[in-house]
Amino acid sequence: MSSKKSKPPVDKNAVRARLERAKDEQLVVGVRRWIRGADYIEGFVVGIGARWVAVAGLAGRVRFDGFALLRLNDIQAVTIDPDPDCFTVKALRARSEWPPPSTEVELDDLRGAVTTAAAAAPTTSIFVEFDRPDICYVGSLVFVDSAVLRLLEVDPQGQWRRKARSLDPDDVTRIDFGGDYEEALALVAGPPPRD
Question: By residue range, what is the domain housing residue 105?
């Protein structure tokens, strides 16, 4: 059995219940996934689907920083700050950034998630954390179906690559969009070249 399929037992109903509570009550969450080397995600749950959850992410400056879409099956633990008026919420209110931003993304399958995320922002970050937990591929979605996801990447210097990268959709563990980094790359790179 591959490492992509094996994981410690997790009570999926309990995870989902915690995510739903956090969403309904607009509570700060921390999400830990069982993927070795994966980032700890902190923010507010703004959507839950059959296979994915949307989190309005928080930057270290206590500001919203785009959205992270996470596969539900990868979630190992959800911590909730039960105080609806905690420091983070107070800071966001003081900055006129409350309530958490919403997003209209499909969360029932990868194709819907990546397509709607790509439609919401000029660039999208795609993570394949089992293979490379330390990097993400940022770019413009070219094509996705059950067999392949093709992304025209923009490099860290803000230059569009000439050829699209092909990824296995089953390997995608996280999709980010609307964050400062993706926005900065899109500003520098300009619109993607179209053939």
Answer: 12-189
